[in-house]
Amino acid sequence: MNFATLLFLTKYSIAKRGAIRDFKQALKNQYLPPKDLASLNWEKTKKLIYYAYEHVPYYRNLFNEIGINPEDIREPKDFEKIPILRREDIIENYELFFSDEVKMEKMKTSTTGGSTGIPLKIAMSPQENREIKKWQMLQWWGLDPNVDMASLYRGVPVSGLKKIVLSIINWPQKVIRFDATNMHKENIKAFIAEVIQNKPKLIHGYVGAVDAVADYILEHNIKMPSPETIWLTAAPVTKIQEAKITKAFNAPVCDQYGCSELYFISAECTKKEGLHVFEDSIKLEFVDDYDQAVPKGEYGNIVFTNLEEYGFPLIRYMNGDRGRYLDRQCSCGMSLPLIDKVKGRVSDNIVLPRGEIISGEYLTTIFDDFTDAVKQFQVIQRVDSSIDINIVFSDKEQERHISNYVMNEFNERVQGQVPIRINAIKNIESINGKLKFIIREERTNNNVEKFNKKLDI
Predict the structure, then answer these.
(1) At the top level of CATH, which class does the domain 350-452 belong to?
(2) InterPro entries, per this entry (predicted)?
């Protein structure tokens, strides 16, 4: 650990006591034997359950209502006795999720619209330290916690004073910040210029925002300094996007999965054999549409528990995403379990008139063999059930071949039930730095219509 890193961590520990200790412990935990790691996870789970029953009104009421208490949760299988927590449960009972040992005004809050369009507000304890997982992930890529980085994210300070304060807080780390929700051409050019001038070792940002920058770099043949990695977050990463971004920056992609409710759930290491789950602090489950656990290797709805959040605990929370565990260990040597790349939201399915479902897991991989010829794609099911497939081609010579392939693939699955249209378009803009690949148009929802107006046809 060099002096600058030690200085950075020491300074951080003043604000959040025990940060260095917790970071060192996390690095040890990732190499625990799998049985020991599972035992640690279960001990933390039981501790949180007991605490929630004693101090959090929502869980005390819930347990009493269904007739169980913490003593009934003796082994991991018993954990499934606790009902799945859904977004509407939090919205309807927000104040009941606060521990009676915290002051509500001292808690940090976060709001997300998710796939429903309904804002969800949650709270987080100030002492809950997500930076530990960030440093841990960076260490997998050979980077120090204080690595200089360029970030395309939300909540970028606009005033000069805020920028100065933030630079003092980050020192000796240098962070270039741009707003991922405002990716017009001038912003993209300015971001590229900053990266060329400062040569940060890490690029970080929303998938859609970094994807837009990569497009500009490749279209204008700009020679970029190569960072150690590009850390992508906030949305699933397709093979097309990963290949494009890797080519533009001449660096590998690190796919990190999380959400507003829990930012660090899993992330890739340099072996890229799956995403490592931070199992020493998170309990992660995959369940079917009846809330039953699915076998390892099968896709299910993601359910998680943050084992370190006591002020506003979310136990068995279903966030609307889908994924699966991988039945293997990573060759990197860490025992942290692997999950596959998250394929998208539960709502990202196409439903045919006879009831058949074309899954989002399939739809997000249909262009995997054409990463050199396709820049972007989007599948939209209209109100009348017809399907529009919007494609931005980077290789016009392959346009007919790919269009025929995609049409044949879809025709096999829909079997004439609905019309299919393939549209070659110029661009698909992201919304707030995020690009939605699959959209089901609803009669009561005009969000899609607004989104489609951004298509440059």
Answers:
(1) alpha beta
(2) ANL_N_sf, CapK_Type1_Caps_Biosynth
